[in-house]
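Data availability excerpt. The first of two example chains:
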Amino acid sequence: YHYMKGLNDAALNKAWYYTRESDYRQALNLFLEVKERYKQDGDQLGLLRASTGVSGAHFYLGNYDIVLENNAETIKIAKEAGNINRHNVSLISSAQVYLEIEESKKALEFSLMAMEMGKTSGIFPEECIVLKTVADAYFQLKEYAKALPYARESLAKSKKAKDVAMIFDCLSYLGKNYM
């Protein structure tokens, strides 16, 4: 069992490597393969981690319907397993898809669910991204006054976390939309 888990975890890490290298097709193939192996082995955490990767790869390939379908499955498994982290990540992933396809109300609904879950559970893995996604959704809805505080809070938390990429994203967003 430990040998197979090690092989599966190594394959998952390799898939994440392909994602970082922007080779999303290769990453997707490996995520799907390892997702099935985790499922066969009954490794729920591995399954959830691989499912997150499947959604990410499909997102970058523009397969938004598949992302939403996969996220719904991941949310169900995460709820059953009590894995708040993966549940939250899948909610925000869905919110970002809804932003891409300009379904702003759904984007806001999912991002607010992710924010509420993070605040009530104390498990908030992607807080800066969630806050920025709430801002983006309000902005798409042309509710600019509601968007601005979330963007500013995302920037402040990004600075505190020293997340340079997110700081840049927030500053670009604020400059583009409010300057």
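And the second chain:
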Amino acid sequence: YQTNFADRIDGGFGTDTLELNFNFVTTYQIGDGAVNSIERLFLRANAQDNTLSISAAQWRSISSVETSAPNWAPIHLSIRGDGGDLSLTNLQTGSRFGQVNLTGSFRNIVTTDAAVNIDSVWQFDNITLGAGADRLVVRQDSLFSASAGGGDDTIFFIGSTLAAIIDGGTGNDTLDLSQ
């Protein structure tokens, strides 16, 4: 396990890229205000079990996210919500995350057209999934709306009472309540 500490990164004027290389089992954590004026985030992995942990505010400040990782070593993403909206549409074509964990609270969540594996979301109002074969695991939050979009999506609900509004969209979708 490797821990990296940094004070602040400020890209200044122009279009700036922050590149994070996961060469060992690593978690990079980007806290609020740690990164300023960075428009592009590039993540490269050559090892398994790597995670980027970032606040929703920091995620919203980045206009382009690109990943490069072999299928056997996908990068995981953990976003700490602040009650605001979250969009994953800044994820570039061909890029993906192995698992996405959303902690804290979110208002509206919008994903990309690439398949997304949201392994955990606890508190949100609305989610719009893209055209890919998405996987969504909702834990305890029973009052939400979901629009699954295209693709063969699977939505798991782990909780006691489900009172959600779910539109499966096109494709053969599954709502799993067995957990």
